[in-house]
Amino acid sequence: MSTETLEAPVVKEKEALLSKRRKKFVTDPLSDDNPITVQVLGICSALAVTTQMKPTLVMALSVIFVLIFSNLIISLMRNAIPGRVRIIVQLAVVATLVTLVNEVLKAYAFDMYKTLSVFIGLIITNCIVMGRLEAFALGNKPYDSVLDGLGSGLGYSWIILTVAFFREIWGSGKVFGYPVFEAIGMENFATNGLMVSPVGAFIVLGFIIWIQRSKTGYVEH
Amino acid sequence: MRQSNAYVIIFSLILTIVLGGLLSGVSQVLGPIQKEAVDLDTKKQILGAIPAEKAALAEMTKEQILTRYSEVISSEVADYQGNVVTTNAKGEPVVAENVDIEKNYKKPVEERLFPVFKYSAEGKEAYIIPTYGAGLWDAIWGFVALAPDLETIQGVSFDHRGETPGLGARITSDDVQQRYQGKQLYNDQGEFVSVEMVKGEKTPESALGPNRVDGMAGATLTANGVNAMLENYLGYYQNYFDKNVRNQAMTMNIDNN
């Protein structure tokens, strides 16, 4: 990594590309340190976009993209960023990436753009992104930061996809827009309107947190 | 580490220029593709006002939709008095598909342009007219397909910018849009009354009659917006219909005699 010239040369063994320490960057946020269920960040979009699986998947991919690249960029610049304006610098980078995502969606997936546009814009203020930049990318090397971004992104994604799965199947009787109940012959499956409203997301999310904490034994301090 | 003010300012300046340049570059490159996407979306909505076309749209590729559109839709633009116009106030030629309903909505009614889309396929005909108004949170718009008698709604396609998912946003669902099919714009006395969405849901069809449709529970304010939008725009187009459709039908009758 040629960008590391500013750092004092440390004589140490070269770390494996996916060492145990680095694997933890990716796996920790999946469960033990999940951004949504443990850190309780990014709840706003988790409630808003999860009525159906398809937009949720696009949202998840967008957040992963923004997380990885903002982490990478901030980490590359971390020794040049003036401490006094670092939050604004972070915001500028995140906002640029989010606008990129929005523009690309508008050009190549207009239907998704119409459903998601507002929420994609809100990734800028998604606490997960800012949180990772402050907590990790500012103090770590680019490659580690990318892994960290990927981990947090995946942790966010699997939760919102799970919520979306239950909300779509109970709220609309579909999975990825495919009417599963009609396919197995249950023509008049009664959909639950509660699941379509944000309240449904709270309930599903509550169950996920409950199950997760009873398994991991995590308690709030 | 504490940097000097000059460093902070220069850093911020460079960052702004780099990021700003990147964004404007991207927008330059993607601009034409986005325009195509918007154009396709508008055409899909116009075709979507015809129920039979809407069912077919889901299976069609982009090219098929554009071809189908050019085959079955012809369009013209009218002014408020109902005269067909080919140029706008500045003397530039106007194309119905490019008339921005939202921009026109902000002008006084008398100065607006009113595009009309004529649908003609396999012996079926309809007049598709755009509508625009305010929902609960933000703009709502749509296209209404009228049968050649100009009294019966064949179908509608609605869209919105920010209505509540599961409540007002249901105006985009087939379920709600189907309620408009076959409804009448005129009451028994022959007066123009538009079609009204009632408050509350699950109203029996017998209680609704030909001028009203069942409402959306929890979304009465969006429904009010839809009602106002339909009444306004269907009303605005009466001048056009009087001058260009009803009149012509009469002259044709005379010819036949």
Q: Quaternary state, please?
A: heterodimer
- State the largest interface: A-B, 29 and 26 residues
What number of structural domains do the residues of chain B give?
A: 1
Strands across the major sheet of chain A, in which order? 1-2
Poorly predicted segments of chain A: 1-9
Strand content of chain A: under 5%
Shape of chain A: globular
* Beta-strand proportion of chain B: 15-25%
Cα end-to-end separation of chain A: 40 Å
Protein name (chain B): Na(+)-translocating NADH-quinone reductase subunit C
Membrane topology (chain B): Single-pass membrane protein
Keywords (chain B): Cell inner membrane, Cell membrane, Flavoprotein, FMN, Ion transport, Membrane, NAD, Phosphoprotein, Sodium, Sodium transport, Translocase, Transmembrane, Transmembrane helix, Transport, Ubiquinone
InterPro entries (chain B): FMN-bd, NqrC
Main attributes?
heterodimer, A: mainly alpha, two-stranded antiparallel sheet, B: alpha+beta, 6-stranded antiparallel β-sheet, two-stranded parallel sheet, 8 helices, 18% strand, NAD (chain B), translocase (chain B), cell inner membrane (chain B), sodium transport (chain B)
Task: Please outline the helices and strands.
The complex is a heterodimer of chains A (221) and B (257).
Chain A: H1 20-27, H2 43-48, H3 53-77, H4 86-108, H5 110-122, H6 127-135, H7 142-171, E1 174-175, E2 178-179, H8 180-183, H9 193-196, H10 198-216
Antiparallel strand pairs in A: 1-2
Helix pairs in contact in A: 1-7, 3-4, 3-5, 3-6, 3-7, 4-5, 4-6, 7-10
Chain B: H1 5-48, H2 51-57, H3 62-72, E1 73-78, E2 84-85, H4 101-105, E3 114-121, E4 124-134, E5 139-146, E6 153-160, H5 174-178, E7 196-197, H6 205-208, E8 212-213, H7 220-236, H8 238-256
Parallel strand pairs in B: 7-8
Antiparallel strand pairs in B: 1-2, 1-3, 3-4, 4-5, 5-6
Helix pairs in contact in B: 1-3
